[in-house]
Amino acid sequence: MARSKQFDERQALVSAMLVFWEKGYDGTSIQDLEHAMGLNRTSIYNAFGNKRAIFDRVMSCYKESVMSALFAELDGAPNIKEGIRRMLNGALDIHFDEANPGGCLVVLSLLESGQHDEQAQASMQQTIHDLKSALQVRLGKAKKSGELSKDLDVGSTATTIATTMAGMMVMGKANFSKAALKKTVNQVVGLLD
């Protein structure tokens, strides 16, 4: 008779996500994952595979939770400008939330890209490109509806917003204050006028 899992897979991934987020890929050991996930090595390997496989699952978990929540802020706003403001401020809230390691797991992982194989690097790069593309689609719809200027270059504006989001996470790790970074958010939203 096969034994059933005695743990919450999603919670185990969230716990692993926080470890990778705090320590980076190379700095995270299997022992760290055992401790955080509350599982022994055999259970981890049986349920998730090796460290690389766990990291890949963690990145998917991050996109499905953190990134999705930021887009929910954008999409739930009454207009595109307020949506961009909410999304960028939401990223700051995540960074400055003491329950999180700070920064952005994707951005921090890209900065340590030498520790990742080509497939993992491509996946992280694609996540940033997906962010830019999703912003571009939303800006394009807002431009088409007349909410934004007909002269707005939605591609470069989407790149600017994605760059700002990533840059704020790096600046936050460099101890820039939330207040200073909120001013950056206001300046970027002002570009949409």
SSE string:
HHHHHHHHH
Named CATH topology of the domain at 59-190 = Tetracycline Repressor, domain 2
Compute the number of strand runs. 0
Mean pLDDT: 90
- Describe the main β-sheet briefly: none
Alpha-beta content class: mainly alpha
Low-confidence stretches: none
Main attributes of the structure:
single chain; mainly alpha; 193 residues; 9 helices; Tetracycline Repressor, domain 2
Explained architecture:
Helix 6 crosses helix 7 (118-144) and helix 8 packs antiparallel against helix 9 (178-190). 27% of the residues are buried. The protein contains 9 helices and no strands. It starts with 8 loop residues before the first helix and ends with a helix. It has helices spanning 9-27, 30-37, 41-48, 51-75, 80-96, 105-111, 118-144, 154-173, 178-190. The protein is mainly alpha-helical. The longest helix has 27 residues, at 118-144. It has a domain at 59-190: Tetracycline Repressor, domain 2, CATH 1.10.357.
